[in-house]
Design a protein that fits this description.
CATH superfamily of the largest domain: Metal-dependent hydrolases
Oligomer: single chain
Shape: globular
Order of helices and strands: HEHEHEHHHEHHHEEE
Mean pLDDT: 95
Length: about 210
Amino acid sequence: MTEAEVEAVCEVARAHELRVACHARNSESVQMALRHGVEIIYHANFIDDATCSMLEAHADRVFVAPTLGATYTTLYEAGPWGMSVEGGERRGLGEELRHGIQNMKALQRLGVRVLPGGDYGFAWNRNGTNARDIVHFVNLLEFTPMEAILAATKLGGEIMMRSHELGQIKPGYLADLLLVDGDPVQDVGVLADQKRFRTIMKNGQQHERPH
């Protein structure tokens, strides 16, 4: 999109009191989004130091979701669907993943809100496996398990503009709870293993009985 097109989209959104989310991968597109008030940026894999600093300056209003899980599975787990690791590397997926990892580490250090999730629904990146992103944040981005959990929960409430009732265990908040067999602070992988789920509650009501 051109600068004028992005400006027009954001102007119309503001007129309707709506937020704008965008898919932007390189420095030019991310900076364009920031100039026009975009609040949710997906990918941001190929950004430079100046763009990281610009994101830091807008850290109080911007969220970044790199969707690394989709890149990871397409590169390493899409073989049964005809995409080899070598083929993924030729398409630049390896480079995209490596740059994305480096830049998300930098943004997290700068205090930018980096969230898991996004681009699920492919055959090799199925809906229902989204919790793997939390594991990727630990294994790839070197988040601590608690940092990764908070990115998915507390920051999840913030990105949905419902931080007053979602994403934390506090009085007055919706009781959306997952009880697992294990300690996710010691092994965050238990959150991605449905066999370890014991109780799922949604707004204080048992959503699914333990197996």
